[in-house]
Amino acid sequence: PTLDPHLTGDTTSAGIVVEIFSGLVTLNTDLQLIPDIAESWEIEKGTIYTFKIRDNVKFHNGNPVTAQDFKWSIERAADPKTASPVADTYLNDIIGVKEYIDGNASEISGITVIDDLTLQIATDAPKAYFLAKLTYPTAYVVNKNNVESGGDNWTDNPVGTGAFTMTEYRIGQHIRLTRNSNYW
Fold first, then answer.
1. What are phi and psi of 131, to 5 degrees?
2. Tens digit of pLDDT for each residue in 128-153?
3. Whether the model pTM is above 0.85
4. Distance CA 65, CA 57 (A)
5. Residue 26: DSSP 8-state
6. 84 vs 42, 60, 73, 76, 114, CA distance in Å?
7. CB 59 within 8 A of CB 181
């Protein structure tokens, strides 16, 4: 139904989305939580997560991925205009997400860009499952320029960060993915 990671709510779409896009953390084949774009993280007081982003991660177009890209992406996912059916489920532990989804805030107060490669996320309470929720595509990073310049059809030519790029999409027929030579 969609290749937009922030709208994905079905396993068919998610199966492709996870190849084209990626997030801070992921699950390995043994369903263990492991680093993805974030090379590491620290947790303070059970509620403040500080992610160190790998310095060699690039979007498919060669542009580097920054903490600001993650902030923008998570805010896009929670934006009422995006109308994500899953943002409230997967992002609701982050301070300020509810207010943002409801249109009562101009940004998510619990997300702070420390520098280009450091992102801090504050949750409303200690949650043992919070990092696992970030493995869902709703928390994936997307390329702002790609989304904004592509309009409603930006996923026809997605610029992700995943191990594969989409090289052909024939709706109702097939999707062709090719190895991403920029993959970290």
1. -60, -35
2. 999 999 999 999 999 999 999 999 89
3. yes
4. 6
5. E
6. 28, 24, 12, 9, 27
7. no
